[in-house]
Amino acid sequence: MKRIQRAAGAVVGSAVGDALGGPFEFGPPGAFSARFPAPGAGSEMSGGGGWDPGEATDDTQMAVLVAESLLERGGLDLPDIFARFQRWAASEPKDIGLQTEDVLTNGMPWNLAAAIHFQVNQRAAGNGSLMRASTSAVHFAAAGQEATMDAARRIAALTHGDRAAWEGTAIFHELIRVTLEDADPLTALPDVLALVHPDHRDRYSAVLAPDWHPEQATEFNGAVWPCLGSAVWALRTTASFEDAIRAAIDLGGDTDTVAAVTGGLAGAYYGLAAIPAHWTQPLHVPLPGFDGRVLHMADLLHLADRLGEGLSKRQV
Ligand SMILES: [Mg+2]
């Protein structure tokens, strides 16, 4: 499979998972398959809970903000990403993580806001930096393992002061990178875990173990560890993009984000062509604070194309 098919699969797959999971946020386990019993029916992108059919939530909106900063600034410009996040947060998006909102609106500078929030609250290991990582994971893949994990940690740290969130985001970046290199991300897990900060390795080893099940989670899946563990579990225990997304949303809880992370991994793994067209057709990403812009499938593909330019150069 061409790398650009996998790169587009990661970006679009994450957005599709987010939009499908949005209407089920904070719902009970099994709600998705109760409403849509048969896979492949095609009517799943039907909205609800305040979301229009195909409307992506804050997860994808923030992923697009990161992508546009990387492309327009020609690389990682952390103050610029933070400023875009702030502009977006000030424009009353339909959904925004509690911690993310606090960090983006507390008036502190970009390099202190998250750290101070963590110092005061002592709890900052939400999945809010992991949920938006599909675009940066594609962009930094060509730069190699060290560079992509480093970038993941820095972008995560803009809103999350807890290193647990940085490490989870860095693992996701590296899993996408190896998948774009045609390696199996599940086989690569032990090697990836060896790259995790020692203070956080055991916790991630537990939720990424082959026999781990989301029912074993010790926190709500809005926390970074069970969110990543559940996404990897959904990829491991299913055999198609659609089934991975269904399994992720059926876990209940923070369904949009668990499905966004699952969709990023499964989209890279199975490639763009494996994502059902009846899911991508109604997909759209509003960008509050950015002149009423709404991205559609063609825009996301263009974005993925440009983010993955380094990959196609390496393919020669
Ligand atoms: Mg969301």
TrEMBL record:
InterPro entries assigned to the protein according to its UniProt record, in alphabetical order: ADP-ribosylglycohydrolase (IPR050792), Ribosyl_crysJ1 (IPR005502), Ribosyl_crysJ1_sf (IPR036705)
Pfam families: ADP_ribosyl_GH
Keywords: Hydrolase
Record region (Disordered): 38-57
Domain of life: Bacteria
SUPFAM superfamilies per record: ADP-ribosylglycohydrolase (SSF101478)
Family: Belongs to the ADP-ribosylglycohydrolase family.
Protein name from the UniProt record: ADP-ribosylglycohydrolase family protein
Lineage: Bacteria, Bacillati, Actinomycetota, Actinomycetes, Kitasatosporales
